[in-house]
Amino acid sequence: MAVLGERACWATRPLLPVVRTWELDARRWVRALRRSPVKVVFPSGQVVERKPGPGKQPRKAAAEASPREQRLKQSRQVPPSQTPSTWEESGLRYDKAFPGDKRLSSVMTVVKSRQFREKQGKILLEGRRLIADALKAGAVPRVFFFSRLDYIKELPIEKLKGVSLIKVKFEDIKDWSDLVTPQGIMGIFAKPDHVKMTYPETQLLHALPILLICDNLRDPGNLGTILRSAAGVGCSKVLLTKGCVDAWEPKVLRAGMGAHFQVPIINNLDWEAVPNYLPNDTRVYVADNCGLYTQAQAQMSNKASDYGWVCDRRPLKFHKYEEEEEYLESAANKGWLPELEVQSYDSDWTEAPAAVVIGGETSGVSLESLQLAESTGGGRLLIPIVPGVDSLNSAMAASILLFEGRRQLRVRAEHLSRDGSYH
């Protein structure tokens, strides 16, 4: 009973003095809550929501938010895909192709005709990665064909000013493309000039005193693969003589996987002009995967065809124009064929700046390449293979020699850094 009485006593006693808030002036409440723009509750129970004015935000939130958070918040407010009004503000416009548009027929002309590419000075690039690499290297675009606007918006806006943008159906691009899975964007560019190109800084830093000369390479896939190897090794440049497949042919571009914009490429050279692109004291070496047998056979037969780097014990024949064949055979009969020393591919041949000549599988190297090797003090590099195997693929042979040259330069650099001299 005592406990119950004590509890009753506590129940009747107020814990805190009660403040009669409804007697206060409502204006004081408004002034007190003026800094909080969420809502105002009056004593009568009425609720009035206060919205911040345009361009205003709570002072506390603005003070607490860091500049990075403010930038992220602004980026979230921008829709992921730009509206056409944004493009208009940037000065960009695009057209939709209509049936029979003459601009579309030029695409196939560029793809199929080497004469058109050389005469008009234009090339065709397909795929977002290849186009992005070209723009980064400074290639000048002329026209873009695309099936979705998002593909164009991925490219730098400053690179697209003055470029014709044409939206076409994906089915049209699929008909033009040689890819199994077309990427929905194709671009016509001005033919790049290696002097005006901007190559990656990492490529320039790792450039080696090794140069590649392609002689009578006719297969687009092989040339594209060779260009990838040249870029991977760090070749200073790649020279293509007349008779090679066009370096800017779509199949070569596809096999090159962007190597065209990583290493300087000089296309369609006469042999008389090749020495102008060689550094001083460069030695020219001709790739040879059956040199010892070739040398012995050449001494017996003295045929120009036996000096090709692709060797077979059966009679070989140059797959060239008839007049060129006759010229080579007459040169052989007159004793004009140079005698070059044959050395193993892993011997030290990078003491001086070196240029490696790679010939095609069917036609081999030309007489001019042998003469250039003799005049520069070079030789033939033998890649030994198992007896019974006729030859190596030209792209494989080029990769072996280029990476062997890189290995030799690395070993020499290590000796120099360790001993101060090379032994």
From TrEMBL:
The keyword Kinase does not apply. Coiled coil: none annotated. Pfam families: MRM3-like_sub_bind (PF22435), SpoU_methylase (PF00588). GO terms for cellular component: cytoplasm. Keywords: Methyltransferase, rRNA processing, Transferase. Gene3D superfamilies: 3.30.1330.30, 3.40.1280.10. GO terms for biological process: methylation; rRNA processing. Residues 46-90 are annotated as: Disordered. Residues 124-195 form the RNA 2-O ribose methyltransferase substrate binding domain. Residues 75-88 have a biased composition (Polar residues). One of its GO terms (molecular function) is RNA methyltransferase activity. InterPro entries: Alpha/beta_knot_MTases (IPR029028), MRM3-like_sub_bind (IPR053888), Ribosomal_eL30-like_sf (IPR029064), rRNA_Methyltransferase (IPR051259), SpoU_MeTrfase (IPR001537), SpoU_subst-bd (IPR013123), tRNA_m1G_MTases_N (IPR029026). Belongs to the class IV-like SAM-binding methyltransferase superfamily. RNA methyltransferase TrmH family. PANTHER family: RRNA METHYLTRANSFERASE 3 (PTHR43191), RRNA METHYLTRANSFERASE 3, MITOCHONDRIAL (PTHR43191:SF2). This is rRNA methyltransferase 3, mitochondrial isoform X1. The gene is MRM3.
